[in-house]
């Protein structure tokens, strides 16, 4: 993977000493004293829904009437997003895995949009005497909202609290994006394998089975700005390229381990578009593709939520409801496969990422299943710019 070597002399703001020089990989050990699990957050009751959505769209001037159009998804589940419960489970699993390995590293949890908030988590870590923090965000891929915005969150908190300044500052580094780490990919592979093998066992011909790898659509302008600027990415930038690479790996492994599945087709599709019709977003939409599949002779599909680490609201609503209904309307059998959640391989893989930074594991020894990895520790200049807002201060990356 090519990176801009000229940037290695530029200091990285809010970084540990080992990460501050700006090289793409931190290959010296760092004595982190706490881990910050950071996530999107979600409402936990009907009264939380609109205030939560106001936080999500803060600064965009979107009226509550528009927010109610999205709120219906949460209202359907009594105003409760599954994400906080999933993060509580992940938090417990991470702590258990760290304890099992004898790693004495406290884990704090803070969200971007709803309680518990990242600001409070960092303040508590500081109050407990911790200064060198390592962040683990619950997003695997390159894009503004799944990578840079988290790094902007860390910079904002350290600036607004003043904890990133003075003679004894708090620093925040971030583990590398883990889209092609074996621990993240394994649960998806198992789900695809089980779904396809099940269809074949029922007598469905492999050429009548299609695997739809689904991820959150984002504006094409943002997608094209994802990934290092010195790489000539195809349409959709690093964001789409990473998903395609992981999907291709899964299907190649399936053909190798289940030869009867060699004729199964696959496609990357997108879901959960929320922008105005005038704004281009990544396509094709999962429901549009499903509607066309009968003409291709497809009888059964596996819907794989490849862009999600757990069963988020977008998985429960957009896939389990809308995409599943689209398949039924098309007369196609469908199975929605699992997300990583707290799968043992995923949890162990996340701790492996932490250990990489504790031990300064050389890049050449870091596991990855695609040619795009291992992804870098320090974001390169210009990576994942917000096409609408431009650059705000961000931790764990070379400015801007």
TrEMBL record:
<keyword id="KW-0350">Heme biosynthesis</keyword>
<feature type="binding site">
    <location>
        <position position="314"/>
    </location>
    <ligand>
        <name>Fe(2+)</name>
    </ligand>
</feature>
<keyword id="KW-0408">Iron</keyword>
<keyword id="KW-0479">Metal-binding</keyword>
<comment type="pathway">
    <text>Porphyrin-containing compound metabolism; protoheme biosynthesis.</text>
</comment>
<comment type="function">
    <text>Involved in coproporphyrin-dependent heme b biosynthesis. Catalyzes the insertion of ferrous iron into coproporphyrin III to form Fe-coproporphyrin III.</text>
</comment>
<dbReference type="Pfam" id="PF00762">
    <property type="entry name" value="Ferrochelatase"/>
</dbReference>
<dbReference type="InterPro" id="IPR001015">
    <property type="entry name" value="Ferrochelatase"/>
</dbReference>
<keyword id="KW-0963">Cytoplasm</keyword>
<keyword id="KW-0627">Porphyrin biosynthesis</keyword>
<feature type="binding site">
    <location>
        <position position="81"/>
    </location>
    <ligand>
        <name>Fe-coproporphyrin III</name>
    </ligand>
</feature>
<feature type="binding site">
    <location>
        <position position="150"/>
    </location>
    <ligand>
        <name>Fe-coproporphyrin III</name>
    </ligand>
</feature>
<protein>
    <recommendedName>
        <fullName>Coproporphyrin III ferrochelatase</fullName>
        <ecNumber>4.99.1.9</ecNumber>
    </recommendedName>
</protein>
<dbReference type="InterPro" id="IPR033644">
    <property type="entry name" value="Ferrochelatase_C"/>
</dbReference>
<comment type="similarity">
    <text>Belongs to the ferrochelatase family.</text>
</comment>
<keyword id="KW-0456">Lyase</keyword>
<feature type="binding site">
    <location>
        <position position="216"/>
    </location>
    <ligand>
        <name>Fe(2+)</name>
    </ligand>
</feature>
């Amino acid at each position: 993977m090519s990176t801009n070597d000229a940037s290695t002399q530029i200091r990285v703001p809010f970084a540990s000493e080992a990460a501050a020089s700006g090289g793409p990989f931190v290959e010296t050990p760092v004595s982190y004293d706490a881990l910050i699990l950071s996530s999107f957050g979600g409402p936990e009751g009907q009264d939380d829904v609109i205030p939560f959505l106001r936080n999500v769209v803060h600064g965009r001037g979107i009226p509550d009437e528009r927010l109610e159009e999205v709120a219906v998804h949460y209202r359907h589940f009594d105003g409760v997003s599954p994400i906080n419960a999933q993060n509580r489970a992940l938090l417990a699993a991470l702590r258990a895995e760290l304890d099992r390995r004898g790693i004495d590293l406290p884990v704090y949890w803070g969200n971007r949009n709803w309680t518990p908030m990242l600001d409070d988590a960092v303040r508590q870590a500081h109050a407990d005497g911790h200064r060198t923090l390592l962040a683990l965000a619950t997003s695997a891929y390159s894009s503004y909202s799944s990578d840079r915005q988290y790094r902007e969150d860390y910079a904002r908190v350290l600036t607004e609290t003043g904890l990133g300044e003075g003679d004894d500052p708090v620093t925040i580094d971030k583990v590398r994006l883990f889209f092609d780490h074996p621990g993240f990919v394994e649960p998806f592979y198992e789900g695809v394998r089980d779904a396809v093998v099940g269809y074949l066992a029922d007598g469905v011909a492999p050429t009548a089975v299609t695997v739809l790898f689904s991820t959150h659509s984002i504006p094409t302008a943002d997608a094209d700005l994802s990934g290092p600027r010195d790489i000539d990415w195809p349409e959709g930038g690093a964001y789409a390229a990473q998903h395609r690479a992981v999907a291709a790996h899964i299907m190649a492994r399936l053909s190798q381990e289940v030869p009867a599945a060699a004729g199964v087709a696959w496609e990357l599709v997108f879901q959960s578009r929320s922008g105005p019709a005038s704004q281009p977003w990544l396509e094709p939409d999962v429901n549009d593709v499903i509607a066309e599949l009968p003409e291709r002779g497809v009888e059964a599909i596996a819907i794989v939520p490849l862009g999600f680490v757990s069963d988020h609201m977008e998985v429960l609503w957009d896939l389990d409801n809308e995409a599943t209904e689209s398949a039924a309307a098309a007369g196609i059998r469908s199975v929605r496969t699992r997300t990583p959640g707290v799968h043992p391989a995923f949890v162990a893989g996340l701790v492996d990422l932490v250990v990489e930074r504790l031990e300064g594991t050389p890049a050449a020894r870091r596991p990855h299943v695609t040619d795009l990895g291992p992804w870098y520790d320090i974001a390169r200049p210009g990576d994942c710019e917000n096409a609408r807002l431009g650059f705000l201060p961000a931790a764990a990356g070379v400015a801007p």
